[in-house]
Amino acid sequence: MTTIVRNLQLVRDRITTACFAANRHPASVRLLAVSKTFSAEAVADAASDGQRAFGENYIAEGVEKILALRGQPGPALEWHCIGPVQSNKTRLVAEHFDWVQSVDRLKIAQRLSEQRPPELPPLQICLQINVDGGANKSGLAPDEVLALAQEVAQLPRLVLRGLMSIPEPAIDFVAACAVHARARAIFDEINSAGVLPAPMDTLSMGMTADLEAAIHSGSTMVRVGTAIFGGR
Ligand SMILES: *Cc1c(COP(=O)(O)O)cnc(C)c1O
């Protein structure tokens, strides 16, 4: 067994344990393996153990891996763009990725919708929210989320799936839960407003350091890099 496969199994165990601790079904949390800076071979290694969903931050690097791994035996991989998307990169993203979790402006969403090739299924979208006003300034302020969610939900070649949050590292479990609870509250508020064509089903939060706190707070997708692929 390779180190990556062993690490992947340890991360799955962490997710299962966190789900039981939170009284949740383990199948209610998906694992996104964040492969940024690691090779296509590392991705193939994780895929050989059944991992399907991979996250990339840098678009050119991600597209290179997507093309390198296209046509591999086994079920198709699912690629998530989780890094900043500039206007001049939207076409590449729309043509190659399955999901974009880092949308925080209408203009970017409109371009992704216009540029999504007609032969591909709609692009799956999460809005990036900034719940802690952290130094990392991308992401929507809490009071901007509902309006953009309604606009994105109308775009023909996009499907609004949910919200993504990347808070600053918290000092401990309790502090991490408090920040994740804010994202969860925004998610619940928007869904219960009943103004979207369909409720959002994805709350993407939690990474290597804080996946237990994120699952405790209602995350449905954890994005894990270091604990699977090693330090960057
Ligand atoms: C790098 C990255 C991750 C993974 O972080 P780890 O701490 O390595 O697990 C998750 N989400 C985003 C948006 C990232 O940029």
Could you give a short description of this structure?
With 232 residues, the chain is α/β, with parallel strands linked by helices.
The CATH architecture classification is Alpha-Beta Barrel
- Highest-level CATH class: Alpha Beta
CATH homologous superfamily grouping: Alanine racemase
Count up the helices.
Answer: 9
What is the CATH topology? TIM Barrel
Strand portion, in percent? 15-25%
- Span between N and C termini? 22 Å
Write the layout of secondary structure elements.
Elements: H1 3-21, E1 30-34, H2 40-48, E2 53-56, H3 59-69, E3 78-81, H4 90-96, E4 99-103, H5 106-115, E5 123-129, H6 145-154, E6 158-165, H7 173-193, E7 202-204, H8 211-216, E8 221-224, H9 226-229
Bound molecules: pyridoxal-5'-phosphate.
Describe this structure in words.
With 232 residues, this protein is an alpha/beta fold. The chain has a single domain (3-226), classed as Alanine racemase (TIM Barrel). Helix content is 42%, strand content 17%. It has 9 helices and 8 strands. The chain has helices at residues 3-21, 40-48, 59-69, 90-96, 106-115, 145-154, 173-193, 211-216, 226-229; strands at residues 30-34, 53-56, 78-81, 99-103, 123-129, 158-165, 202-204, 221-224. An 8-stranded parallel sheet has the order 7-6-5-4-3-2-1-8. Helix 7 (173-193) links the parallel strand 6 (158-165) and strand 7 (202-204). Helix 4 packs across helix 5. The longest helix is centred in the C-terminal third of the chain and has 21 residues, at 173-193. It is globular and about 50 Å long. Bound molecules: pyridoxal-5'-phosphate. Pyridoxal-5'-phosphate binds at residues 34, 36, 57, 82, 166, 207-209, 223-226.
